[in-house]
Amino acid sequence: MLWAGRSAVEIATAVRSGDVTAATVVEEHLHAISERDPRLRAFRLVREQALDEARALQKRRDLAELPLAGVPVGVKDNLEVAGAAMRAGSRATPDVPARQDHETVARLRAAGAVVVGLTNLPELGLVAFGDSAYGIARNPWDLTRTPGGSSAGSAAAVAAGMVPLALGNDGMGSVRIPAACCGVLGIKPGTGLVPPPSDDWDRLCENGPLARTAPDLALALSVLAGDPSLAQAWRSGRREEPRPPMLRSVWADDDKVWEPQPPSDGPEPFDLRVAYAPQPLPAGMTVDKEFQAAVRAASETLRVAGHTVVEHTRKLPGWLGPASVAAWLVRTAAAADGLDRSRLERRTRALSRAGRALGALKLDGASGRERWSGYGADQWFGNADAMVMPALAAIPPMADRWGRRGFVRNTVTNVRYAPATGAWNMCGWPAITVPIATHSTALPIAVQVIAPPGGEPHLLGLAAQLQAAHPPLRPPGLGF
User: Fold this and answer.
1) Which residue in the list 90, 151, 174, 236 is annotated as catalytic?
2) Is pTM, for the whole model, over 0.85?
3) Annotation says 256 is catalytic
């Protein structure tokens, strides 16, 4: 295989220049899926018509201008893809083909991407696991471990080289958690940058991309946001307007065109005030020592890159965790509303019962969310431009049928291993996860970087600097 495992930037450049056809690229990725996915169960549905769509793409007159020309993508199965049923990991959802693409899917296609499949998620995207009635998604680094969730299949597919890009969504960490588990990049945009899913969990949930490299992530985010100035933000940590195509010089010979020097392949220096918090969780909650060490290593990398780096010793407020859990549970009840409860999993029924009870008691986390988004996050963050903290608190749990278990085991396990992401959904701030090391268990370790509203360019630039010092990780044994 020549193209499965290549970056989105490499693929799109080659397709635009005519070095390879979109059909060849898609065919190789479909072959990679057929070989690898039986072990991983990243996809619920593989779209064989993707090959015909790639051939049609090749005939587009604007092929040479498409930023994602011929790039295969996976789409989380809770976003509408025209002609396919959106099952959201559940047997209780309608088995009826969507009439049109979700806006984010439409933007990917308009940019030249080819949707090769719908990726697995836990029922209704409620938890940070990867199991559902459609199978147990598994972590490419260790098949006995979960790939995280709820964008489980999207993260596993990118990590395993089955697609260079995937689309997920993040309601309480559902892009960042699986990205961290699987050793890939994932970004939750701030509120309003990217069109949200149809059920946006009362503005808690944002659609976001997953990728193996910062340039790929920036390119995907620019397409999803409809903002071309984000595509090169990984270079400098700021928006950069695309350069207009160069015109033929009147002084050149017929076969010569004047062109500027190409940009450097790596990120450029820029200066931010970066805080780092190896253990930001309240009293009684722990973070794996190796994950704490990774935060310190990331902060040192950024210091060497030229940033002003300071340690942040304050803990997240104790009331924020219960408010986040309450908001999550109330949204599970809303997500299950109107579905046949007899067809829902035990886990979903239990979580939604708890959410209805909390809602009836007016314990829905709304006051804590208002307090945190109104002024609490700003006060805790201080004067930093970005904050580095753990993405996870513990290694991913075992891959199992968690959906057959009850409220306590699912909730406690989720909170113990992934308690550090939901705070940033509660205030709508952008956040990214970046893999930088390997744990003693041979699983990847990622850090989470957060910025105030509008800070997506900073996050992309910092991610690129971290990756320059800690090159992208590949799971062993997959041959790409």
Assistant:
1) 174
2) yes
3) no
